[in-house]
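Entry 14. Ran structure prediction on the chain below.
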Amino acid sequence: MIADIPGARIWYEDTGGSGPAVVLLHARAGSAAMWKGQLGTFSAAGYRCIAYDRRQSGRTEVVPSTPDPLPADDLRALVDRLAIDRFHIVGTAAGGIVTLDLALSHPAHVRSLVFANSVGSAEIKQEPEYIAAAAQLRPADELPPDVRELGEWYRSRNPEGVKQWLDLAKETRLKKPPFPGTGNRITFARLADLKVPVLLITGDMDPYTPPAVLEVFRSRMPHATALVIPNCGHSAFWEQPELFNRAVLEFLAKN
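Output, structure tokens:
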């Protein structure tokens, strides 16, 4: 499906139905197709699921010579176009940054927020608490994308899943998309003011958001709960979909 918003024609998938809306935001790599392990399961549980290709990904078309708006502004324009007033939002990695920005700007429209495998913002990466918790666990940028994004346990046991992930990652137009811009300065102090229910998720092998970093987020967000998924790297939704889906659906049902 296509939604015309200022400066772009956003491609999205909508499972339809009259249940509460859940919007899913993919990482910098790939596209909405990455959520194939969630759309059917969440829809069967009674939710209307929307996953869309952000600019520079998948089938979304950008009007030439127009400035790129903030990703959270695109998200707000899309849900307005679909006449969705309140919704759950699930973001992974860079998609998680967009979820935080949207929730800080428009908390009344967010029923709940799932923040998975994400560093949160460029500002948070510079905060002493983050640096101390992450220590030297972040990988070098020159590592292959599947090594950065998928944990060793998954790569050694599911070569076909790795191949599928790499094929979908090619739907990213830029070799290295920019870090998502935000309208808010996303810091730990600012996140402490976020009052929407939040589920924080990471993998026990995530080199970007190791469990120690997730605990810092949890300690600074009074309305958050946290989950560490075992045998999992930086893409919990892909590597451990059953555990991820079960945790998210239990969380959504409470909110």
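The chain has one domain: 2-253. Will compare against last week's run tomorrow.
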